[in-house]
Amino acid sequence: MPYIKIILCALLMTGVFAFTATAGETSGHKIFGCFDLEWEMTQGQQVNVRFTINDEILTQFTLGRNEPFHQFYLSSETNTAEGRMRIRYKPAKGKAYLKMDSFNYRCSAPMDRSFSGILAEFDLPAENVPKNK
Predict the structure, then answer these.
(1) How many Cβ atoms sit within 10 Å of the Cβ of residue 66?
(2) Which residue of 56, 92, 107, 122 sits 20 to 30 Å from the alpha carbon of 73, by its own alpha carbon?
(3) Would 11 be classed as within a structural domain?
């Protein structure tokens, strides 16, 4: 009987975490080899972005309506990376998308890796969504 309670609690917590994850997260993180990328959407609908290696900040920048695009180059002793990121606002859908246009990186190896695609989808506040009449 105690195992059933534990299983039910685990299922309930998993459901709560899954719902929270799909309810429009405002922050996230992704690892690209040795590069750790973190982002957070502010209340002003800007996205703060930070690249680190082993907790050492390599670069940080903010994307927003006034500056939706950023090109960067990262370098440490044996690691290099370059890329372009942007934030796209879709008020009609009530969404904003954090997108990596291109990201080429190398971590202590002669082989380059690359990534492009959407990193995050953010829900915009309801006042920015056009009302249907």
Answers:
(1) 7
(2) 122
(3) no
